[in-house]
Write a sequence for this structure.
């Protein structure tokens, strides 16, 4: 009871905005680094036996001259692989590209990974991904409304859970944009899977906190809502820390550190996302309930300094 | 006592799970049941090809479910002919088929064989007399055209039956013995249409490509009056007689066709044995090295993570922590056993899903223990505290896991319609893990904990419970 988290709610709101807003500004400038999973195109990652991939400019020229390829981007990695992205090359298999590369650069090449995605697919995946997130959000609101139907204003719990969930998604979008700028990350189907997982676990976490509010509201009928929520948060704090930080993050940290390149990005996104999920359960979801209960927005415009929060 | 019955149940489940995860499991083969038990590894772990095929028809054209099922059957037959174990052929949405070939050696060849190559051949039948022709219709023959590099190995019979003639003769012919010469293949045909002749007879008109025109002109000029076989997936479907040399690349196939027969032949000429033509809209190939590296590393990472978690639970929660560790190890056995039994194809995100559901299993335990400790601090007796802790934690365990299962269902649906098997695999492993985690928390942890407390009768329980 001694820790007062709810009382400092605006500090935490501002803290979240400090992380999200720069990400959104970068998003507006740079856009999301969408992979060909969503934009369509061709991707080829190969290893050169000699360990010396040719200079990118020459590969670009080969692609343009021989295959008539558009939007060719070439990157070499420190372990001697070559990554080529281009617009979708219709009717051209990666086998014939490799043969052309082998002949041109006189080296033996092994395939690491290749993707060829027709424009019709790319658009559809992006559209369906948004639909999936939307449907998931609606289903979760409905379920929370159902589970908390005994409480007054049950639908508020669902909406506040979704507000906090959106917070987590925005954190991940910022991470995606920044990762794209700094580490050449791509927002691909795996990124989407990570986002959807974070949504699932984020909601799971909110329900645990809300459940405590539900239970306490029947025990401490005389407490103000604000005190009640704060009390519930403090009671679930130990569990939040132990589950999220100690167990889930142990696993993900191990994956991020030792799990190989293919999983590293995925693990880091989950790590940040789940951390954000725990944070938002306490500092966003529960706090929003209090803001709503007190109708605090009526006073936002009279206090000046807190206008930014609106 | 009820608890002992539960204990026996747990014991049986553990024994079954150990059987299921046993390496080189022989599988279940008795009383007509044939079920292999093995770890199915996904494309991203063993390498291989994933192809998404789409019905290649103009926008707005309706495709019947029957056509798609037919197309899937043909693709399946061709995939089987490739001899890839663990191959997957599935419908994705209304007009797409997803094909996965883990561990395939030559991805290029595989893709050509399954989707785009119409295995339609025009075969030199000049040595066959007109009276013998009906005997061959519907028969498998060997030709010298090496489709997809599979040589002359016969592909399974297509779903469509012969167009003309039936075999009434009892003479045994052995068409497999002879290798026939292929003049040209389906690729040389540019266009096909059904036409109705002067007396209302149905005919199939075709237009050849320039290259096909030349091949056909050479052959027909030399073989007027002799039969020419149309062979589909190595099965003779028709053998019309060449009436005149076809030099302009345009011709008609006549025969006593009904409207249906003519249409079927036209479709076969157009798309091989596929009821609808298909084209690749997504091709994903993963070399074997990338996957093996990731698999080993994630296993090591998983072990490191698991060890840390087990240590943490033991140090922080002590006695119940030890019980939870046992419960979570049993949880891992059951879950992995189920993956092998169903089987669930394990992909990298799938492994992540498994690790995350382990987190969920631990969460259920932690929720219970935190409540138990609270009750103990409030001065309840140990047994009361355990009962209360469980009852109070249950609603949040239930509601939070149901919410995760809802997300899993949506992910599964999303993965199914878009043919994104990676996402499907992830949601399935997560859903199984979450379900098992609830089971282990309510059945195993609870039973073991109250049995341990009954037997050990810890006097200084505050210490045992880490308060």
């Amino acid at each position: 009871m001694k820790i007062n988290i709810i009382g400092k709610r605006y500090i935490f709101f501002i803290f979240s905005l400090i992380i999200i807003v720069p990400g959104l500004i970068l998003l507006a400038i740079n856009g999301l680094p969408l992979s060909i999973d969503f934009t369509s195109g061709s991707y080829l990652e190969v290893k050169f036996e000699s360990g010396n991939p040719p200079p990118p400019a020459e590969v670009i020229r080969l692609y343009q001259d021989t295959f008539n390829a558009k939007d060719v981007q070439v990157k070499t990695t420190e372990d001697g692989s070559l990554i080529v992205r281009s617009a979708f090359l219709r009717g051209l298999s990666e086998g014939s590209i490799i043969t052309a590369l082998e002949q041109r650069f006189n080296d033996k090449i092994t395939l690491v990974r290749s993707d060829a995605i027709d424009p019709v697919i790319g658009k559809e995946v992006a559209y369906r991904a948004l639909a999936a997130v939307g449907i998931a959000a609606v289903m979760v609101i409905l379920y929370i409304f159902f589970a908390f139907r005994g409480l007054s204003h049950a639908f508020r719990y669902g909406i506040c859970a979704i507000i906090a969930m959106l917070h987590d998604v925005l954190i991940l979008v910022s991470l995606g944009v920044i990762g794209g700028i700094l580490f050449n990350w791509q927002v691909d189907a795996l990124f989407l899977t990570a986002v959807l997982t974070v949504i699932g676990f984020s909601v799971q976490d909110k329900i645990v906190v809300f459940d405590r509010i539900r239970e306490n509201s029947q025990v401490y009928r005389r407490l103000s809502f604000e005190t009640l929520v704060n009390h519930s948060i403090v009671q679930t704090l130990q569990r939040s820390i132990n589950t999220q930080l100690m167990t889930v993050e142990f696993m993900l940290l191990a994956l991020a550190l030792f799990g190989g390149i293919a999983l590293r990005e995925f693990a880091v996104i989950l790590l940040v996302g789940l951390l954000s999920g725990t944070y938002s359960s306490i500092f966003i979801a529960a706090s929003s309930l209090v803001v709503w209960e007190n109708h605090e927005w009526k006073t936002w415009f009279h206090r000046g300094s807190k206008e930014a929060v609106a | 006592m009820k608890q002992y019955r539960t204990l026996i149940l747990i014991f049986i489940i553990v024994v079954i799970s150990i059987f299921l995860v046993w390496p080189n499991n022989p599988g279940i083969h008795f009383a007509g049941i044939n079920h292999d038990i093995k770890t199915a590894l996904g494309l991203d772990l063993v390498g291989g090809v994933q192809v998404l095929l789409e019905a290649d028809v103009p926008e707005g054209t309706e495709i019947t479910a029957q056509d798609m099922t037919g197309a899937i059957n043909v693709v399946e037959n061709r995939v089987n002919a490739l001899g890839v174990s663990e191959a997957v052929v599935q419908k994705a949405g209304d007009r797409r088929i997803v094909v996965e070939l883990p561990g395939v050696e030559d991805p290029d060849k595989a893709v050509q064989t399954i989707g785009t190559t119409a295995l339609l051949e025009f075969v030199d039948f000049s040595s066959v007399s007109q009276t013998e022709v009906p005997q061959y219709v519907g028969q498998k023959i060997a030709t010298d055209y090496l489709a997809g590099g599979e040589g002359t190995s016969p592909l399974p019979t297509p779903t469509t039956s012969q167009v003309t003639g039936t075999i009434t003769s009892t003479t045994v012919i052995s068409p497999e013995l002879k290798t026939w010469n292929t003049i040209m293949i389906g690729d040389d045909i540019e266009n096909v249409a059904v036409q109705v002749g002067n007396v209302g007879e149905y005919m199939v008109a075709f237009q050849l490509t320039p290259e096909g025109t030349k091949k056909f002109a050479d052959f027909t000029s030399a073989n007027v009056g002799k039969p020419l076989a149309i062979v589909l997936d190595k099965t003779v479907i028709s053998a019309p007689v060449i009436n005149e040399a076809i030099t302009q690349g345009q011709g008609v196939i006549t025969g006593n066709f009904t409207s249906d027969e003519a249409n079927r032949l036209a479709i076969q000429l157009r798309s091989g044995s596929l009821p609808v033509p298909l084209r690749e809209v997504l091709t994903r190939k993963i070399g074997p090295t990338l996957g093996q590296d990731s698999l080993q590393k994630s296993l090591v990472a998983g072990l490191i993570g698991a060890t840390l978690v087990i240590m943490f639970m033991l140090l922080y929660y002590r006695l119940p922590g030890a019980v939870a560790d046992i419960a979570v190890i049993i949880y891992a056995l059951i879950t992995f056993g189920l993956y092998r039994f169903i089987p669930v194809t394990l992909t990298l995100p799938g492994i992540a899903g498994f690790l995350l559901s382990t987190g969920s299993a631990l969460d259920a335990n932690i929720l219970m223990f935190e409540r138990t400790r609270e009750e103990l601090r409030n001065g309840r007796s140990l047994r009361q505290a355990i009962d209360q802790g469980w009852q109070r934690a249950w609603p949040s365990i239930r509601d939070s896991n149901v919410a995760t299962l809802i997300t899993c269902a949506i992910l599964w649906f999303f993965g199914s319609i878009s043919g994104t098997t990676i996402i499907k695999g992830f949601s399935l492993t997560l859903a199984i893990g979450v379900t098992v985690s609830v089971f282990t928390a309510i059945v195993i942890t609870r039973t073991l904990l109250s049995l341990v407390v009954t037997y050990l009768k810890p006097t200084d329980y505050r210490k045992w419970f880490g308060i």
Observations:
- The longest helix of chain A spans residues 225-258.
- The first strand of chain A starts at residue 41 and ends at 48.
- Residues 304-310 of chain A have pLDDT under 50 and may be disordered.
- Chain A has two domains: 6-35+121-309, 41-117.
